[in-house]
Predict the 3D structure of the following.
Amino acid sequence: MKITYINHSGFLVETKDCYYIFDYYKGELPALDNKKHVIVFCSHFHADHFNPKIFGLLNDMGMTYEAVLAKDIRKRKHLPDAKITFAYHDKTYLLDNGTKVDTLLSNDSGVAFIVRTSEGVIYHAGDLNDWYWEGEPDADNQRLTSAYHAEMKKIKGMHFDVAFVPLDPRQEAHYADGILYFLKTVDCDAIFPMHYWDDASVIKRFMTEYPQYSSRIRNTECTKGEIL
């Protein structure tokens, strides 16, 4: 698999016969081979995860594509005239090219994706994370943490070839809670931090504070076509 970071939580994963685009928000796509099929994933309706502009970009490139969109996008405008699978949590979907998609329930909005391709298994968290916010009621933070842990237990012991997981500096001292729990819960070869709002220094901070995980963490900002 070839991984290209686009922006924020957006990634392009290329296999021998397919492109997988996750949570396009903004940014440029590299040149794509129009002989390959494209599957567009959007984890939920928030504007920093779902931007219908992606479909126009693919149209301009002459690509054939389909979309797997969280069900909360169903009523949004500017959806493509293409095959769309609206994804509910805790469901399994088998796409025409053999790609298998499982979903988890986000503790924010929408779903997280587990995508089994011909070349490996991908996890994209969307906004599923241990969202702990300073100043918010303890009960609210505890509820979000408990919900996150419950979803992670569903994939405990699974192996992923690549995972895209939030590392959000806005959470201050709790910025790494979610990714740390993920690292301790599942087996993953390569983890790309995301959702860091253009503050890429948080990746270096994490690798400095938790060097025991450095072999599994990739510097997302340097991912312009990394081959796994």
